[in-house]
Amino acid sequence: xxxxxxKLLRPLLFLLPPETAHNVTLKSLNLLSRLxxxxxxxxxxxxxxxxxxxxxFPNRVGLAAGLDKNGDHLVALSQLGFGFVEVGxxxxxxxxxxxxxxxxxxxxARGIINRxxxxxxxxxxxxxxxxxAREAGHQGIIGINIGKNFDTAVDNAVDDYLICxxxxxxxxxxxTLNISSPNTPGLRDxxxxxxxxxxxxALKQEQIRxxxxxxxxxxxxxxxxxxLSVDEVHFIAHALLDNAVxxxxxxxxxxxxxxxxxLQHANEAGGLSGEPVRDASTEIIRQFSDILxxxxxxxxxxxxxxxxxxxxxxxxxxxxxxxxSGLIYQGxxxxxxxxxxLDHDNAK
Length: 348
Prior knowledge:
The chain is an alpha/beta fold. The protein is 39% helix and 16% strand. The protein contains eleven helices and 13 strands. The two termini are 37 Å apart.
């Protein structure tokens, strides 16, 4: 793969089923990493560091959760030039997720629909991978994204999040609560009402206890959906403030299909990501930013398909950004394009 532009590799990868192409690509990156060649895939550049949530990030561009659910490719992905990598979503117990096929490309719209269903090998496996990476000298920023098992009732969801929080705390630079995936029944109910306040309150109390135990503070962020009303944004924002949550990640995938109506696979169940969710995500960031007023930092994710899109997230109120679907369509050079653009904008 070395020396072959991604624009030439992509048509070959797109001949494969999406999940197969995903796995082939990640295994190839691992091989290149072991050959100490992974960094050759990324444009190298000097970047400006930034402190957010008490963490010094090498740059403002991260990898969103979902690409590396089990932490099996952590080092290889970090070598591509990301300022931070978020792994997961991981659950207390391993689970297979939804039946295949569960991943669909919409190339005309540069979008992706997935209904993976939190397929992962469980929190213990992921932490073993993180531990191995640290022992091998990896010093990059690692976020661990946690969720509930599909067969855990929403009323008992806090128990699953507490299990993952306690286990991940010694290993993570920050921990994300995924309460917005559309592919686990009932999960999005945790974004609303007393369910949200109860969850955040319990996890905040446990965070305080873990901080005292480990003498080390690990920030907690919450990832929300783009399919929120103005009133729902207002309620969630105040719940985050009331519970002293450290950060917000906006947004996850959307259930809306207006932007892809008529395209092949547009009616597949699951969350839609990529360019079709860009504007909705940016608008949600703007609404949260107006309410939070800088008290809680925002990580902007959703539909970033160009360096300009990344800058738009920052202008809307985000401090950091994350990529995912844009990588599928543009390759590793896209990371450095965004890093350069945000560094240049920050230097003005």
